[in-house]
UniProtKB/TrEMBL annotation, chain A:
UniProt entry keywords in alphabetical sequence: Oxidoreductase
InterPro entries for this protein: 2Fe-2S-bd_N (IPR042204), 2Fe-2S_ferredoxin-like_sf (IPR036010), 2Fe-2S_ferredoxin-type (IPR001041), 2Fe2S_fd_BS (IPR006058)
Keyword Metal-binding: no
A GO MF label: 2 iron, 2 sulfur cluster binding
Transmembrane feature ranges: none
Lineage: Bacteria, Bacteria division WOR-3
Pfam family, one: Fer2_4
Protein's UniProt name: Pyridine nucleotide-disulfide oxidoreductase
Length: 103, 374
């Protein structure tokens, strides 16, 4: 159910320790220190948040921490750039609605 | 946690390089070789900038790493910088340039300040977006972004791609998608010819991927994320021709229509910014020493003009050497580094692909520019 490139003609991927984390109400697996966005996309999750005004689904765009299209709520904190933020065991990741609220 | 902690442990350095891509790394290496105290700040865990995702072999001359894969060039530069003792602060984003010539830095939720006598900005560029119906749906990605996901993290965010733009990025990334086992439906290009190098286009065509010239994407369809795209032929005035629409099934759209220099910090620093489309849009003014309108600030690489890794490295060497000289006075070794790099730059820039850049750089100095050229 997780989609990672396993065979590649040029690259070899070094991955961290396998860890569990939460996305909304489900428990998922990922690799420690990979960006949260990579873990989510490997699990087939593309919708990361909903826009402020029209509630439209949003995904990442730049994947290098520049565009703010991938802001999610992580451990209760809003506006975390998940294309850069490293995954840790037990993280609670939620789709952000609009500008997000601190909890 | 509710917010960031604010601390000002004032780090000091002679020369501070912002951005550790090929340009910033070479700038740091040159300045350090000459004997300056150098600090690099970069927002990634690993230095190398765009190079860390480039699995294809570069071409050009041996001196510019021809035949070497981008990832490996990054490794070489990292090792050089480490061996010389360049100080590196990674995972740190420079978020502001303040009145007293101090940088604000955010790292692990902690805010701190850095003060240096000279700054060399090498922040690179960000990918341009394109407007069409539903352009905001998940699945519409920057081509470089997909390349990062795929080549750095081993994750491909889709199974069938449509690529918009046929510059080198628009040609190389789909080829790498194929290598990773992902389907590429097509490449669309609004101009009447392929924008990138012929060799890259030939590889793509051999792999059976159609390149639709004089076409653009007009709409993306899908509920929660991309399920299909509508492309359309354009006329000589680049408007869509009715009745030529085609629906292409795909679950991701890769936008590869160009990059824009990341010059917001320089704006804040009060550097003169000019609009020069040939160089990528808003770019910081700089002279041939890579010095901006503010005498303590130098620039290099994609930030100074959207070009390529080899020229970014050479500009980096010039910026590093000249920043050193501006602090410590003239030194023959510094002049030699800058002269050599300039010579190599001049050779690269004789290529027809570089005509636009040469013309654009002249625009910083009105009087040198011949009138109108489209
Ligand atoms: C798909 C693709 C293929 C390419 N192929 C080739 C090729 O074959 N040959 C070639 O010569 N060139 C190629 N290039 C171009 C080349 O990669 C770039 O021109 C080059 O990387 C520019 O170097 P740079 O150091 O200026 O910027 P970058 O490599 O973009 O590095 C800038 C660094 O600064 C960091 N940064 C930015 N802002 C901040 C901030 N505020 N705080 C901290 N850090 C910051 C960035 O995260 C990054 O690490 C290619 C590019 C792409 C995308």
């Amino acid at each position: 159910m997780y989609d990672y490139i396993t065979r590649h003609p040029i690259l070899e991927f070094k991955r961290g320790k396998k860890v569990k984390f939460h996305f909304e109400d489900t428990e998922l697996e990922g690799y420690e220190n990979q960006p949260i966005a990579a873990a989510l996309h490997a699990a087939g999750i593309k919708v990361l948040s909903f826009s402020d005004k029209y509630n439209r689904p949003r995904g990442f765009f730049c994947a290098v921490g520049k565009c703010s299209s991938c802001l999610m709520e992580v451990n209760g904190r809003p506006n975390v750039m998940v294309c850069m933020e490293p995954l840790r065991a037990g993280m609670r990741v939620k789709r952000q609605k609009g500008r997000g609220k601190s909890r | 946690m509710t917010g960031s902690r604010y601390e000002m442990p004032d780090k000091k350095s002679e020369i501070c390089v912002i951005g550790g891509g090929p340009a910033g790394l070479e700038a740091a290496i040159a300045a350090k070789e000459l004997g300056a105290q150098v600090l690099i700040i970069d927002d990634n865990p690993i230095l190398g900038g765009q190079l860390i995702k480039q699995t294809h072999k570069f071409f050009g001359s041996k001196a510019h790493y021809c035949g070497v894969r981008g990832v490996d060039i990054g490794t070489v530069l990292n090792e050089k910088a480490a061996a010389l003792g360049v100080e590196v602060v990674n995972n740190a984003t420079v978020v502001g340039y303040y009145d007293n010539d101090t940088l604000g830095i955010l790292r692990d939720d902690t805010f701190s300040a850095v003060r240096a006598e000279r700054y060399i900005f090498a922040t690179g560029a960000s990918e341009n977006m394109l407007a069409f119906d539903n352009a905001d749906l998940p699945g519409v990605y920057g081509a470089g972004a997909v390349q990062t996901m795929m080549n750095v993290y081993g994750v491909v965010p889709g199974r069938r791609a449509l690529v918009v733009g046929s510059g080198n990025i628009g040609l190389i990334v789909p080829y790498q998608l194929l290598q990773a086992g992902v389907e590429v439906a097509a490449i669309v290009e609004i101009m009447n010819k392929v924008g990138g190098y012929y060799v890259h286009a030939a590889k793509i065509k051999r792999a059976g991927v159609p390149i639709y010239l004089k076409h653009t994407v007009t709409e993306v369809q899908g509920k929660e994320s991309v399920e299909a795209a509508v492309i359309s032929q354009v006329g000589d005035d680049y408007t869509c021709l009715m009745g030529t629409e085609k629906t292409i099934e795909c679950d991701m759209i890769l936008i590869a229509i160009g990059l824009s220099p990341l010059c917001d910090l320089l704006h804040q620093a009060g550097c003169r910014i000019d609009y020069i489309p040939e160089l990528g849009g808003h770019v910081p003014y700089h002279d041939k020493n890579m010095r901006t309108s503010r005498s303590n600030i130098f620039v290099c690489g994609d930030l100074a003009c959207i070009e390529e890794a080899s020229t970014a490295m050479l500009e980096g060497r010039i910026a590093g050497a000249r920043a050193y000289e501006s602090l410590h006075g003239r030194k023959s070794r510094a002049a030699e580094i800058a002269r050599q790099a300039q010579k190599e730059l001049d050779i690269i820039r004789t290529s027809p692909f570089e005509e636009r850049i040469v013309y654009g750089k002249k625009k910083f100095f009105p009087g040198q520019v011949p009138e109108a050229k489209s």
